[in-house]
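Methods — Computational structure assignment.
A single polypeptide chain was analysed. Its primary sequence is given first, followed by the predicted tertiary structure written as structure tokens.
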Amino acid sequence: MILKINGDIINNDWKDIYNWFGFESTCPLDVQNAIASLPKGENLEVKINSGGGMVTAGQEIYSMLRARKDVDIEVESLAASAASIIAMAGHCTISPIGMLMIHDVSGWQAGNHRDLSKMADVLRQYDKALAQAYVEKTGKTLDEILNLMDKETWLTAQRALELGFVDGITEPVDEGLTNGTLKVTPEMVAQYRTAMENQKQRDAEKAELLKDLEHFGS
């Protein structure tokens, strides 16, 4: 069973908002539901393509996946910020053209100098907490990981493998590309859009006709 972790990593109560706007997202409940529907004896294949998002949501997803032994993770393109934490939750491979990014936690705070000083300390503690996921995965020291986070480190697939953030690089798969061009051409996209517009117009005309018939029948 495949679970796609795409778009922003968000808390559960933001999911309806993202869906309303048509934005791609992943929340802990998505992962919980995937685990609940996983057939017995089957592995959960987690595919990551995300620039990150909310820290607490990433922590929750990481903990859910880390607690299981039937999870295989693959970074398909990008696992950055909170998404890179999720990638540390189990055996993880990465596409040869994939990327990992780790950095310090960000936050917003308004108030006086005491409030801002306290917020800075909270962020430093969050950095240390999240760094433990990278420490456990790579075997590096906390100071080494915090240094990489401070510098906002971007890792190619090969570099991520060398540093121990991933367990392997996936073999290339034929995705149906020919000579560097997609199967769907711009002309085909235009044809599709025209067809959809025509279908929309037909549906509107049908709805209007049904409305007239209902009025006539009354």
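Note: The beta strands are 2-9, 25-26, 44-53, 71-80, 91-94, 99-102, 153-156, 168-169.
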